[in-house]
Amino acid sequence: MTSKFSELLKFPCIVDFRIIVDALKKDALNEVKKHIEEILPGSVQEIVASPRVSSNGKYISYTIPVRVLNAKNIEDLYQHLGKIDFIKHVL
Fold it and tell me: From 32, 61, 78, 88, which residue has the greatest number of CB atoms within 10 Å?
């Protein structure tokens, strides 16, 4: 997958990660940003997109722009964030 990212993107660049979380998780956005900053300090950019609530209200999705330096950064973030229990999907 790393080679595909390298073919499609010119690094460094900003990648929007869509993070879908359990709506019951308090302060989920700040928790997600904290996890991203652990992997890539200083990488979270200003969030301009409004959060979206699912039709049944169980989930909230956030679009978080992250400055990545290379394809490995993208893969590392997907893997790390995908292991967090209150995060349902990372797109």
Answer: 32
